[in-house]
Specification:
The chain is elongated, with a radius of gyration of 26 Å. The protein has helices at 3-13, 17-26, 31-41, 45-61, 71-85, 101-112, 268-276, 289-300, 325-336; strands at residues 90-92, 124-126, 135-140, 146-149, 155-158, 162-167, 175-186, 195-199, 202-206, 210-215, 221-228, 231-234, 242-244, 248-253, 258-263, 281-287, 303-307, 316-321, 339-343, 346-350. Strands 3, 4, 5, 6, 7, 8, 9, 10, 11, 12, 13, 14 and 15 form a 13-stranded mixed β-sheet that branches. A three-stranded mixed β-sheet has the order 17-20-19, covered by helices on one side. The chain is of the alpha+beta class. It folds into three domains: 3-129, no CATH class; 135-275, Jelly Rolls, CATH 2.60.120.1440; 280-350, Phage tail protein beta-alpha-beta fold (3-Layer(bab) Sandwich), CATH 3.55.50. The relative contact order is 0.07. The protein has nine helices and 20 strands.
């Protein structure tokens, strides 16, 4: 085969290489696309050098997860690129395989602001037409739960009165989630991309596992419960990171900045409560009256009015599976000696 024919074939083979590199860097590449990029990188030292340079710039831009996809941050980078390399209005999108540092800088800008339909088109794009990397937020009101599938295939059971935020595409080095409230995670294993959940003052880092996080703002404790796999719990205020083992959990006191561990053997009620809610298991593990009311409001989406004075030492311990609110209230009212009425979404608890 002549050098000229071989060169033409390689150019055709790698014609969509910058599209595949983009997918590798933002975490959306298939296994076949990753292998293709790896093959291209190994074709020459020049390819390897350019890929490492692009990867370095990409990772530098997203090292602070709070800035990933942030609108103002992206616009600042884009405007800086335009002012340095082009007129402030237009920029041509040119394929990566046409080598030069100028053209590679263009592709870097495209990677930072994905323009999926323009990988190899010789056309101009105005600054106003550049799409944003979308931040998805999923939330549930009280009385509602949902199952969410993340971009990497991981699953999240989101509890009521809870919210998660994540980006349309995970990066090639990190899968970042922000949680408010409670969620149960089944994470797809990926040794190259840790799965990180930020909630209040704690961070949980995993590769692939099943675990629950309870982080309601109104509650005094944060809880992490591990079903299988391994998770690392970290907090800048604590000296050491804590590695949980399957069947164990952690309760972190927001007031005391301290924690204690538990397991499904020494505290089965708490373990069942933090892992079974997604299956409809409502567990009261020695809660006081205020916590009991808060749980009822969150679980069933009702407003609660209390008449009279509840007894001291409430300490309710009970478990219900997919029960109607009236059945729960019948059982608890009989045990604790109060009356109740339920009309529409208004629950009234009456003490003598």
């Amino acid at each position: 085969m002549s050098l000229r024919v071989k060169s033409v074939k390689l150019m055709d083979e790698f014609r969509d290489i910058d599209g595949k590199i983009l997918k590798v860097l933002n975490g959306t590449a298939s296994e076949e696309e990753r292998e293709f990029v790896n093959y291209w990188v190994n074709e020459s030292k020049n390819n390897a050098f350019q890929f490492q340079k692009l990867k370095g710039i990409w990772e530098e831009r997203i090292q602070d997860s709070k800035l990933i996809g942030h609108e103002e941050y992206k616009k600042k980078i884009w405007r800086a690129f335009l002012s340095d390399k082009h007129s402030p209005k237009k920029i041509p999108v040119i394929p990566l395989y046409r080598r030069s540092w100028f053209r590679m800088a263009v592709v870097v800008a495209i990677m930072l602001f994905p323009i999926y339909s323009l990988y190899f088109q010789e056309e101009e794009v105005s600054e106003d037409e550049i799409p944003e990397v979308r931040l998805f937020t999923k939330s549930n009101p009280t009385g509602q739960k949902s199952l969410i599938q993340l971009p990497d295939g991981s699953k999240v059971w989101l509890n009521s009165d809870s919210r998660i935020s994540y980006h349309e595409h995970f990066s090639d080095s990190l899968r970042a989630i922000k949680l408010e409230g409670e969620a149960y995670f089944e994470v797809v294993r990926d040794s190259l991309r840790p799965f990180v959940v930020d909630f209040e003052s704690l961070t949980v880092t995993v590769l692939g596992t099943s675990f629950n996080i309870s982080a309601f703002e109104a509650e005094k404790d944060l809880k992490v419960t591990l079903v299988d796999g391994s998770v690392k719990v970290s907090n800048s205020k604590l000296e050491d990171n804590l590695i949980l083992e399957p069947g164990t959990g952690l309760v972190y006191s927001k007031e005391k900045n301290d924690y204690h561990e538990f397991s499904k053997h020494d505290n089965p009620e708490l373990f069942r409560k933090t892992t079974g809610w997604k299956n409809g298991n409502l567990v009261f593990d020695g809660r006081n009256f205020e916590d009991f009311v808060r749980e009822i409001k969150r679980w069933y989406g009702v407003q609660v009015q209390v008449k009279g004075t509840p007894p001291k030492g409430w300490n309710i311990r009970a478990s219900f599976e997919n029960e109607l609110l009236t059945n729960v209230m019948d059982a608890v009212s009989y045990n604790k000696g109060f009356r109740y009425s339920l009309k529409d979404k208004e629950l009234t608890i009456m003490f003598n």
